[in-house]
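Researcher: Please translate sequence to structure tokens.
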Amino acid sequence: MLLEIKRLFFSHRGDQKLFQNFNLRVEEGKIIALAGESGCGKSTLLNLIYGLLDLEQGEIIFNGTPILGPTKNLVPGEDDMKLVAQNYDLMPYSTVGDNVGKFISNIDLDEKKQRVQELLEVVGLEEYRDILPKYLSGGQQQRVAIARALSVMPKLLLLDEPFSNLDFSRKIQLRERLFNYVKEKKISLIISTHEIQEVIPWLDQIIVLNEGRLIQNDNAKDTYLNPYNQYVAELFGEVNVFNEEERSSFNLHKNFWYPHEISLSEDGEEAIVLESRFAGSHYWNKVQLRNKKITIYTPEKLAEKVKISFPKTDL
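Model: Translation complete:
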């Protein structure tokens, strides 16, 4: 077991209780997302794992060794673990290349140069090798920090909202290169994110937090198709929620339905179209089925009335 958290208790400033008897086990070689709304404890948990905060009670064991907080370990972190937080701590008067190569040995300078180039390619910053960080955007500085963290080939990499400052096209490029790289190098990765749906293809596990409580801990497919509650379902985007009475009335096998799961069907039940709006890859529609308003996605704009149906089983 690479990481184990046992009976963790932690409060902010002694009065705001966050983690209360929190337990978690992380296997080696996995890509794991910490998901949840702002304030749920994602960043705090990463800081606890890295040793930037002191536990009140419990243990965090990494690679067989207990993690100590700042009162017992003046220099935080372990040799085989790296954290990229939302403040990047770059050396301002050193070039991007020197920042990335900070932790790489100078014994073989040609090998070091090749290694820095490889890491810059992973984060898409090859052309910025000789630029100072002050001339970079926040998103670019973030990518430099990620490359520097990867340079030591850690057993565990912790990333706090690594895509938050990137435009969409850069985000697509970085996530694919980054996830493929850590898989190839067998680096375990824990990433906190508000954009869980955008990273699903690469995830082995999703850990959902809510006010410091572990709500769900499953693989990506099970979390998406069988969310524990409405809070989990809404992390993936829009969702139609049916209470137990409505579920029985519509003869549904689950309570949460994503808009794309509900389809048009000649054999379905008639619904009134309230709105039908172009949304890029699909049309966003609000329809009324009996007295229930439902959001559905369709390839074409809808007319005044349609027939819709729900699949009998999950995907």
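Researcher: Any highlights?
Model: The first strand starts at residue 3 and ends at 12.
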